[in-house]
Amino acid sequence: MSDVMVSAEGVHKRFGQNEVLKGITLTVNRGEVMCLLGPSGSGKSTFLRCINHLEQINAGRLSVDGELVGYREANGKLYELHERDVARKRQQIGMVFQQFNLFPHMTAIENVMLAPVQVLGRRRDESRQRACQLLDRVGLADKYDAYPVALSGGQQQRVAIARALAMDPKLMLFDEPTSALDPELVGDVLDVMRDLARSGMTMVVVTHEIGFAREVADTVVFMDGGVVVEAGPPAEVLGAPKHERTRSFLSKVL
Amino acid sequence: MEENELTQPGPGRPDDIRAVPVRRPGRWIAAAIVLICSASVLRFIVTDPAIKWHIVGRYMFDSRILHGVIATLYLSVAAMALGIVLGVITAIMRLSPNPILKSFSWLYVFFFRGTPLLVQITFWYAITALFPNNIISIGIPFGPALFHPDANAIITVFVAALLGLGVNEGAYYAEIVRSGIISVPEGQSEAAASLGMGRIKIMRLIVLPQAMRVILPPTGNEFISMLKNSSLASTIAFAELYFEGSSIYSVNYDTIQLLIVESIWYLAMTSVLYVGQYYLERKFGQGFSRSQRATLRERWFSMGARTR
Ligand SMILES: Nc1ncnc2c1ncn2[C@@H]1O[C@H](COP(=O)(O)OP(=O)(O)OP(=O)(O)O)[C@@H](O)[C@H]1O
Ligand SMILES: [Mg+2]
After folding, report:
1. Residue A241: which residues within 8 A CB-CB, separation 6 or more?
2. Which of residues 282-301 of B touch A (CB under 8 A)?
3. What CATH number is attached to the domain comprising B114?
4. How many domains is chain B partitioned into structurally?
5. With an 8 Å Cβ cutoff, are B196 and A91 in contact?
6. Among the ranges A179-188, B76-85, B277-286, which has the highest mean pLDDT value?
7. Helix (H, G, I), strand (E, B), or coil: what is residue A73?
8. Structural domain containing residue B170
9. B4 lies in a domain?
10. What is the ipTM of this complex?
């Protein structure tokens, strides 16, 4: 088994005439945490969404765990994947959104149980037990039966993380998971993510939390205008940025 | 803390203000006019010998009327069910990326919403006449026919009424479902997709249950319209409530009394719907508001309290 979890080579993405990703090349190794930084509109979310095929790339190669995203290659030709196969690959990639996107008509535990039962066909009681464990792990042991409206933003985001983990993903994608939170709630969510990183989960995190990136990331990638400006260990990119654009961005967010 | 200081009488806190309320004679006059008018109408209805309430009482549970009530109920429920199924399918087709499905559903809505219901019911009834020798051919279009059933046997008045009301309802209902579906934020579908759910599961487990909150109130409305519109089936001699009532008064001329009987039954049926709608709305509203779970009774009283 190769060590590479996500591999992007010259990934391009256009929306109409607007070229948002202009050749992204990067590698995320198994068990590694990569933090993506960059100004608004630089294409961070778009790249993240390409990884689980919520957006389709226009050029380049993007693969997760050795398999192309959205396509199948045979005899030197690319074949679009059937919707069913795309869904099957997404099962193994967890995603956490800026706006949480919990299902409001279900309680916390129902949110966490839903996909294991409906998608993986696991038994309800088994899934419920597992959901309890996951909610305990993210510090919500007393909120099993709460509907999302009755939870704070930080609690909702932690339920969302538990919901993604319930599918036993091999890769977790986070799109600014703390940007919609009040400052005093950010810490709880970051703690959960730090724990997760420590447990060996492969993670790609779009964030503006420089402190988190410095402490947890193995690689920090700075993106601007649809290209990777600078990538490397946090000490280099955050501590001694080589590029002027990185420096000016960091001086604004720090 | 601050609130407590304000609401608790303390040494430094002044007494509540006691001001003379503004006089509103207009309100009193309006209320008096309404009361006087309704009292005189009520007096007329209750005491006027021409109304002959004992006749109303006699027909209230007449077997023909009861038969009509049951026919109205099952026609309405069946047509509503057909309408809901057609509406959901049409709405989903309308939102699909396939241009053929999209235009087909658009045409369906355009056509059946744009022509009178009475015309449609009569059309379904008359359609038997279009087929020579009362034969319908079911098979591949322009190809060999597979079955030759007798059209009169298939298109009974019930089926004609059911199709007329149900297909028409489907066209209205499609728009209701569509507005419900597009009211669910796209992030919901994306979150479900990222968990590995396919399109049908996302629709069934995530989108439609949330759309229900938007769909239900107009559904109650549609159901009530359906109950009343089902009386149009009398024009093709389907024996529902209105038809039964009028065939009685066409003989004995107790027109007013029978119309009152019918109205009371229609009101009774719609009242049952109100209760059902309330509890369905409560079920599908779960998770959308912090305070909930009031019974119908509590809601009624709290409504009164708020308006006072
Ligand atoms: N579905 C879409 N259709 C058209 N344009 C889009 C779409 N999604 C994103 N874009 C455009 O792509 C560009 C990059 O967007 P993206 O959301 O990836 O930026 P970002 O780096 O995540 O920014 P932010 O920090 O504000 O979230 C923006 O100019 C945006 O307008
Ligand atoms: Mg973004």
Report:
1. A222, A230, A247, A250
2. 284, 286-290
3. 1.10.3720.10
4. 1
5. yes
6. B76-85
7. strand
8. 53-137+148-285+294-307
9. no
10. 0.93
